[in-house]
Amino acid sequence: MDIPDWARWAFCVFAAMQLIFFYRDVQLLRQAEPGRRTDPWLAVADTAVGVVLSVGLALGAFDVLVGAGAVLLVVGACRGIRALLARRSAKPAPAPGEGAVPAGD
Q1: C-alpha torsion 59→64→65→68, nearest 10
Q2: Each residue of 5-56: pLDDT tens digit?
Q3: Can you give the three-state secondary structure of 34-98, one letter per residue?
Q4: Residues with Cβ < 8 Å from 16, sequence gap 6 or more?
Q5: Is residue 89 classed as helix, strand or coil in its secondary structure?
Q6: Which of 64, 74, 92, 104 could cross-link to 56 by cystine, CB 3.0-4.6 Å?
Q7: Predicted confidence (pLDDT) per residue in 43-94, tens digit
Q8: What residues contact residue 13 under an 8 Å CB cut-off, 6+ apart?
Q9: DSSP, res 26
């Protein structure tokens, strides 16, 4: 791939910024309770693969982009599914007497 020099430097800066977020995510993972570590693990994986993807873009390595992109897609899908399931389980159940009313009443 032919990537301009200014874009390579931008990807390097972006990767360095992501390392800061990676450090923050690792700290949050270490502070998480044993039963609540899945979301922090997914955040760490997302940030780590993002760093690899940015470095791959900076180096122009197509193989790294394909591999990291596939892993990032899986991690993003897992995070999205967990968010949907959490939102669905957080909905309150309707109170008795509310909701659907039978047609004869």
Answers
A1: -130
A2: 898 899 899 999 999 999 999 999 999 888 788 889 999 999 999 999 999 9
A3: HHHCHHHHHHHHHHHHHHHHHHHHHHCCHHHHHHHHHHHHHHHHHHHHHHHHHHHHHCCCCCCCC
A4: none
A5: helix
A6: 64
A7: 999 999 999 999 998 888 889 989 999 999 999 999 999 999 988 887 776 6
A8: none
A9: H
